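Late entry, pyridoxal-5'-phosphate complex.
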Amino acid sequence: MTELSELYQQVILDHNQKPRNFGELEGANRTAEGYNPLCGDRVTVYLQLSGDVIREISFLGSGCAIATASGSMMTASVKGKTKAEAEVLFQRFHGLVTGGPDAPVNPEALGKLAVFSGVFEFPVRVKCATLAWHALHAALDGNRGTVSTEEGGRRET
Amino acid sequence: MSAAASTILEGIRRNASSGFDVEEVRRDFPILGEKVRGKPLVYLDNAATTQKPRVVIERLDGYYRTENANIHRGIHFLSERATQAYEEARATVARFLGAADAREIVFVRGTTEGINLVAQSYGRKFIGEGDEIVVSAMEHHSNIVPWQILREQVGAGLRVIPMNDHGELLVDEYERLFSDQTKLVAVTHLSNALGTINPVGEIIQIAHRHGVPVLVDGAQAAPHLRVDVREIDCDFYAFSGHKLYGPTGVGVLYGKASLLDAMPPYQGGGDMISSVTFEKTLYNVLPYKFEAGTPNIAGAIGLGAAIDYLSKVRLDLVAAHERELLAYATEAVSAIKGVRIIGTAREKAAVLSFVLDGVHAHDVGTILDQDGIAIRAGHHCAMPVMERFGVPATARASLGLYNTREEVDALVGAIEKVKRVFGR
Ligand SMILES: Cc1ncc(COP(=O)(O)O)c(C=O)c1O
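Prediction complete; structure with ligand written out below:
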């Protein structure tokens, strides 16, 4: 049960049960939806961006424990950060869960987000972990509408 | 002992005397000896695809080793042999479905292609602007999207047969959907998401009373129920080889000869013509008119072997075994606190879809997989069904002829483990 307990760490289960910053955000000036057509999971990210800084952020949606906890912890970790800082965090997080070339040498640099390192052992769950991040990325880009995890033939592996 | 349990025991005794021995059947499937993550494989994803018996694997191997050639065109020994094997497979399918004539059996890639063939060939010729196609609320996407494509092409409309909270179609409502504009009914025989067996005989009778032909999606039914296309009197019936213990990439479209004859070809190419000049092409006779290009010869032959295998173990005994196992699994899984079964129709087969309170189906799937238990978690390509039941996804265990009560017990144990991981 070691890999399982790596994946479903207590922090993740807590965030799944009581997601932070969950709900619509009043006064949001950016929003985007992430959608995984393979499983039907959906999450919408709401941002209040002032200049380059994420002043407020929230998310709403229905998904598995990994997707929900990831959305919750993402909102907590990017609040107050600049666009550029948030994007760098996304890159590192992506590297962490895929074990790709962007994988951080030192996962601690990701702070609390390091609890998602267990996802690496579960390739089919990578999309769950990155769904909210894709929506954040789209919202920061100023995209409205829905980003799909399957878009443009790009598949997360 | 509960009434259900005693029915099950009685069933097992009956099977033992009638010769269905699940342990013997399991030995026919090499993959069932595999370990997954160090545990014995418990394969409960049969609605997605089934495992293959040795006789099918060996038939494919034998074909490639000793018979491989293109068909219908060589004058040499091997081509003749391959053609004969391919046409024997067609005759086997015709007998399996109770078709009047092997000409009514068209080999396609699978159910999806069979339905698309009817939509594009029959549909584009006989369905026009303002006409309506009736589908049901429990269709797989492959029996929805081809009709939506046709709708865009010709300006037709779609009507949907509703269902009740058990996942049973409302036949009275269905009858009210008919108008002079209704041109086709397309309905599944057995729902992959709910396990409901639809009363296709009655559905077809009603449609015929209105002069409307019916396509039946048999992807899930063919491996679990005896199908007789003349008895139910359907106009088209489609199924996939890979869900019937046969190879991937091959399936069947049955169509009544009178309808197939009236339909234009689906694709153009070799084999589907009888003569070609640059001015005019004469199409080949049935079924070749619909089999353009080199078909999946090995696949069709392998499918024939799979049907022969099912006939040998006897589909009626398989159905009885699966019926008892489904009753056993339904009772055991519903007894778990926090589980809700999605799809509780009176007439059901092989499929047990459920949700677990507070735990997403994906998480259920991942945790079961750690114990070597393969199920499907998601929308099962039936998003309208998920919407109807107000769930984003379900976990689905689907049975095949080789599944056992011990495997159901393992499933139940693993669901309990999910609850422990999630502190429920
Ligand atoms: C009811 C039903 N119809 C159609 C299909 C599509 O079958 P295939 O993908 O083999 O074409 C499936 C497969 O899941 C199914 O369950």
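Helices of chain A lie at 2-7, 10-17, 65-78, 83-98, 126-140. Will revisit in the morning.
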